[in-house]
Fold this protein.
Amino acid sequence: MIIFLKVFCSPWSCRFAYMLILLVGVHGLNAQDALKLIQLNHMSWTARDGAPSEIAGLGQTADGILWIGSGSGLYRFDGTTFSLFQPAQGEAPLPRISIRALCVARDGTVWVGFRPAGVAAIRNGHIKLYGVQEGLPPDTTYQLLQAHDGTMWAIAGLHLWQLRGERWQRESPNEPFSSERVYKMFFDKAGTQWVGTNKWIYRREPDQDKFEATNEAGGELIQFAESPDGSLWVGGEEGAGAPIPTVRRLDVEGHRSQYPIRLHVLSDTLLFDPEGQLWIASVYGLLKVSPREITKTPIPIAVDQDKQFKWFGRDQGLSTDSATAMFKDASGDIWVGTMRGLDRFEQPKLIHPENIPVSDRRMMVTSCSDGEVWIAVPLAPLVSIRDGQTTTRIDKTYEINSIYCGPSNVIWFTDDHGIGRFDRKTTTHIPLPEGMRPSSAKQVIEASDGSIFVTFRNAVELWRWQGGRWSQVTVPSVQKEGRNVIYRDRSGRLWAGYGNGAIAVLEDNSGHNFQCPTLGDITAFAEISHGFLAGGMNGIAVQHGNNFEQLHLEDELHVRGISGLVEADNGDLWLNVAYGVVRIPQSEFLKALDSPTYRMKSQLITEGTVIGPAPLSYALPSAVRGARGTIWFANSSTAFYVDPKRLAQNLIAPVLTISSVAADGAALPDYRQIRPGVNTLVIKYAGINLPAPERVTYRYRLEGSDSTWQEVGSRTEAVYTKLRPGHYTFEVLASNGEGVWSHPSSTRFQVLPAFYQTAWFVLACFALAVAAVWLILMLRIRRVTETARIRAEERADERVLIARDLHDTLLQGVQGLMLRFDVASQEVPEGGRARSMLEDALKSADTILLEGRNRVRSLRSDRLKDLTLAEALDGVGRHFTLYSNAGFDVLTEGPVGVVDPIILEEVFCIGREAITNAFQHADPSHVEVKITYGKKVFAVSCADDGKGIDPILLSSGGRPGHWGLVGMKERADRIGAKFECVSSTANGTRITVTIPANRAYGVRSPIIRVLFKCLPLLRP
């Protein structure tokens, strides 16, 4: 068809028919809304940023890392930092640095082809090399691709190779292109494999064994690309002898096109973006075209027709003119490798129109009811934008201060000449009220009847121009100082905003005042489908009856310095604020209307060259609605718009990794167990978000330490000090800045305890503390006991002294007196009464002397000083056996311990009394004393097999005038012992004294008793 037109048509008619055919053929591609390269968000990295040069291949792995094959090696890029690939520890580096081909397989393996020869596969940092021994030729590998079935293909030495097992095999000699030079291969969405040679283009279906030729010619420098609508495109050099650079749409099996498109332009690589726009990279830079744009170009007749296109090159910000590789990442951004660096192109949210004036002071924007947007800049032309076309309306204006389009689509503006009126054809100025300076007019609002309301600087009055005359609005409620902004709603009411949250409304000839002081200065109004809004320096409020209620956001910074409020077609609320553009979803706004305390979630948008504060010169609404639902904004230096219907939304969460853990500045290769005594633990993490790494924010928590998530913004490390020993789990989340959060990345570790933090150490310390307390207590008891012993010895010595004195004085005196009385009695005759009285007196004195001797003997008793208790009691019993036939034994049970002297003395006295009573009163055949040194008790018992004790006497405590049993019980009570007397006529009598060990020995623990035994040895 094209040939027919060229042969039979005149040049102009042929060109018209050709363009008509193209228009029909591309009806499915709509480029009306496609942005030009200059309008996209563009970032560039060169050698000064660490980027490599001579980039030949780009790819992205599942962790978000961009892999770059270049003439200086293999690099990794996480959005902020370039790093040269390093193999796993202990492995050799890549054999060559010049990389010609790169492919990232679906399993994450990175394949690279080298110049002059060889291929490497990189899996998890480990390198596997392929060379001549694995079947490859000793030539450069130009391309690597993975088929749909997972097999790897390569073009090396201008031939096609396939990896089978661990060896590369060349295509079969039976293939139709076996004798041709292969330049490029491609797999389309259906899995069909395409091969371009120096002669033809070949194809092979997934279920076919051999390639088949198409009717499309090949050529050198050939490239393939498949558009979103399924058409197949190639680029290269077409023709023989003097080949013409061409980019064309093919008409082949599987990609039929009734009207092929052919564009004569040089291309080194091709790529389609998500909007169906074709990107062409060449030595001229970048070209972004659509079939509609192609149809508007003349039919090229020479190679240098490349220059008719507006290439995006170094002059427009590309790292250099020569673009060598292109790649579309997971989020749809386009990456371009050049001979001098790396570039990224991102679909903007805030779109900058072309050909509008710029200013370092302020921008002003307004829109008319027909959707046309007007942009004004001081001392610059006044322009309007309709359907993407920018038109200059007034070549030059004066110091313009405000602009407004009224219901009649007339443009009103204020400048140094006063108030201007532009009716799309002519400009006129209306006279000002008497006494007003030309530059004093602030804001103009047009009423439905064509009249205008005007505010003036330093004037309290609100003026109205109607029918060629000025008049003052005399409603008292609007006669206030400090008026910032006026606004006319759909019902014709006029609203005025003042400082300190004061709002007034004028309806006919009456007015009403509102107060919302928390808003600060009122700077903007908006009438939306859910109510009437007022915006101020400190927030936003909605009218409820006679009040304005302030609404709250999670981040109050998102509503600071509002200068524009617009409702989108979908109900979302858009704000122009001091820190950028803010979107409040309709669902959030409705929740806030239902509950005034609800804090709305919002999205702050700042990007590209349109970042900057909104103008706060008042009287200038900085956000308006444009055509087809667009919303236009003005900031301090430029104007831009948002299309809510096609708002670019990054739905891909950052790929999050925990990169390292360091303890006190030293990196820990294995941090599952962290040594004791670490003061500072630093955990570093990173969320890879290639489209906008600067927007990534984080939150983390350490289970075992943090009770809630810690919001840390863009900080990429967590610092903990003096963590206690235990098991911890660290979790971190990353957001891409647009509300999409990653899955938590976590790691577990244990902080090992120091020896002094272990349970056994705590128990040992507790035991030692208890032992120390007991030792101190026992030392005290020992001291008290020693003091008591010394005092007991002193008392014993004192008793001995008393006994000696009694013996040497009283008893000896009585003895001498008795001798004298005996002599005297001999002189008295026998039978006389006096003689009888003297003999009786001598008998009584003898009895008294005997008792006195016994008392003195008891006072001088010191046998326990040199004898054990068993020896002392045995001595008592042996004395009685001299006058009795009864047997006597003393038994000792257990290791003999050290008994408190006082207790020992009392026990001896009790034992002596028991032995004495047994021999004197029981008439026994055998008496047995048993001394038990037990761990819990110290006991002494005296048992006989005599006639026992009368139960009546036992119950009454003994015979009248006898104090044996009573005395023994009293002694037992005095030392805290248990006294027990069991007697029967059949079994005799058993008297037992039982004393607790801690009271008898003074110390309960055997170890402490040993210590006490050793204490005397330690004394100097």
